[in-house]
Structures are given as C-alpha cells and as structure tokens.
# Entry
Amino acid sequence: MTDNQSRSLYERALSVLPGGVNSSVRAIRPYPFFVERGDGAHVIDADGNRYIDYVMGYGPLLLGHDLPESVMAGIQQRASEGPMYGAPTEVEVELAEFVARHVPSVEMIRFVNSGTEATVSAVRLARGYTGRDKIVIMEGSYHGAQESTLVEGSGSDTHPSSPGIPETFAEHTLTVPFNDEQAVHEVFAEHGDDIAAVLTEPILGNYGIVHPVDGYHETLREVTDEHGSLLIFDEVITGFRVGGLQCAQGKFGVTPDVTTFGKIIGGGFPVGAIGGRTEIIEEFTPSGDVFQSGTFSGHPVTMAAGLETLRYAAENDVYDHVNGLGEQLRAGLTDIIADHAPNYTVVGTDSMFKVVFTREGPSDRSNHCESGCQQNSECSRYDYCPKNGADIKRADTERWERLFWPAMKDEGIFLTANQFESQFVSDAHTEEDIEETLEAYKRQL
# Structure
C-alpha cells in the first residue's frame, strides 16, 4: 500500500488544524490515512487503498456507507427543500414519536446536536430537577467533552483530567468503578442527599466494551430510587445498536429516568438527544426553567436521516443481520485467540466487538463465553475478564497501537485506532467480509 496522498494531506492539515485532525481519536501514529469515500462496508483512502471498515464513523453507520434508496431519498428531499429554517418541522415530531414508541424510558425527548451536548444537558437537567449538585460517574468512563465528567480519581477525590477545567467542576463529580456495587453503596451512604444523578453507559463502550455483571444496573436503579436521585443511561453508543429498537435498556430490563442518545438516531449526521419521563424532560425551557436551546437542534436533514434509518432497520431485519455477523465474528475471534493469544479477551455484543489485549488468563477455557465476554460467573476466565475501566487500562495498549493496528491496516482492515474504542458491524457487511477479517486476525495476532 502506498500512502503518499495521505501523507501530503496530513502535512497540509498540520498547518491549519491542531495536530492535523479535528478529533483527537483520529490522530493515528505516525499519521492518519485520509478517506476519499465510502463504499458499502468499505472505505477508500486518498491513495486508492480499500479497507473493510469496522469503525463505521465510531458507531452511527448502522446501514453502512451506501444508504438504501428510501433512506437516501428522504435525506435528499429534505436537503432540497432548504438547509434549515429556525422553526419546527414535522419530521422532528415523527422521529420523537418513533423513539418514544420503542425505547422504554422515553416519553418525551429533546433533540440536540451531539452526544456531548446531550450529556451536558442531561447533567444540567438532573441538577435542576433534583436541586442537587453532585453526580456519580464510572471511573474511566467517557460522556463527551464536558467539564463535569472530564475528571480522574476515585470517590470524592477527583480532579479535572484536562487543563482548562476549574477544580470546582470536579468537586461535584464522584466516581466509582464500573461493576462495583459496594462502591455505589458507599458513595451514596456518604453523599446520598447531595447526589442529583448516576450517569453511566449500560455497557462501557469507550473503554473496551465492558458488560455489567449480573445485578449491577439493578443496584443502580434501587439505590437512586432510595435516595431520590436520577439514573441516567448514556446510550450514545449503544442506542439503537445494542438491544435493537429498545436499546440496551430493553436488553438488560432496567429502565433509567433519563437516556442520552446520539450517533444512529442521526443516521450519520450530527445529532444528540435527551429522553425520559415527561415530568423530568418538561423541566427544559420553555416548559420548565432548566435552560436548553440550540440553533441547529432538530435539524430537518438530520431528523430525516435518523427517522429513515430507524424505519429501514425496523422493516428490513437489519438487527438480525448485523447481530448475526457480530456473533460470527466474535465466535471466530474467540477460537483464534485460544490458539494464538490465550491471554487476550474477546468482548462485545450484538453488532459491537473488540479484542482486548489483556495480559493474564487461565489455561483452562472451560465454560468460556463463546462469542464475547458476558461476565458469566461460571466461565473459567471470569476472574480475568475486564470488569471496569481500570482493567482495560492495564491491557497492552502499546502493542495494540504500535504493532497490531498498523498490521491490520496493511491487511486492508480498518479498526478503531486504540484499544479503548468500540468496533462495529454494519448492515453492509457480508459473511465474506467476516471471513476475510478473521483470516487477517489469525495472521496478525
């Protein structure tokens, strides 16, 4: 593979973009390849190299790069009618009705422009609704580029994880390890009357796809109810990808008070949303006093893309297809690492997957999860499988980034650039793509 064009574009980008990119996750070493176009389940870079794409825009491209005719027609119609109006449109009502009809926690929804904006607004809403200031998040979690959750530390000993954030923001953020029920009880015993909400992903999706252990989300539900706090599920990644139209909350059978969305509900266009019980969501202005507004919120082209994507998924067995391919891929990876890298861990569910370069594991693989870690307590790997963000962080990240990712790129496989981000299967992928990918893993692991 040649990369002369990508290298030249990167040199130009360094002069006008900080680090040469517009999002830090794209800063691949020594430099990223620049995509020219998408084609089904593939991307073609500026040098004409073709890759099977498992990044899928970091999640939103459930249908792949070539949109079905009905989806494309809906998008093109809206775009042809004018870019935006500064006034409501019917399509935003239709998308809101679709989401409320299918997602257990959603009675009412407010659309915004990104997952970050959704979580920022959800935290503000929780504080306004409860009259409390503190929030609880999971250690190592990611809820967008917002001040309240860009923290590091444990319990109440937290500090901003980025320059530019005042210490006072971190003072109101408490952290617990994901899957640690005792830590949840302890933080509420000490701060329960001051906690506005617990904010968590149903599955850690930015830290290696870590599943909840049995009962963990039920504990969060019970403790927040007991203390009058809100439970917020960040389904920016899992929404309409895990659990189908009911999202991850439907899959796990736990209904939060508030849910944040992004990615798939915009069909590949910038989007975010905050949904939940009517009495809570109506606290947003203009029906309530918690300020929330945005010029591009409910953008008609984005709303059309999201609505047509979800309608197509509902009517064309998309979830059966992508989840089946995801299981085939994870099962194949499980067999491969048993032979080539037995310490590693296959994680994921539905159409999400990853191989985490964990450093330890048993020689006995009896009762192991056959297609991605599900935190099965009977599995011989249960004590070694990652349970939280710290476990993922201890994995061999340098080997992934410096050796494995470039090798897979040379194989024509486009994976997320670090060990922490999720990877995704789309409706455009085929069984042949999966088999080709497994052969590449087999050669490089």
Remarks:
- The two ends are 21 Å apart (CA to CA).
- The CA atoms of residues 126 and 227 lie 14 Å apart.
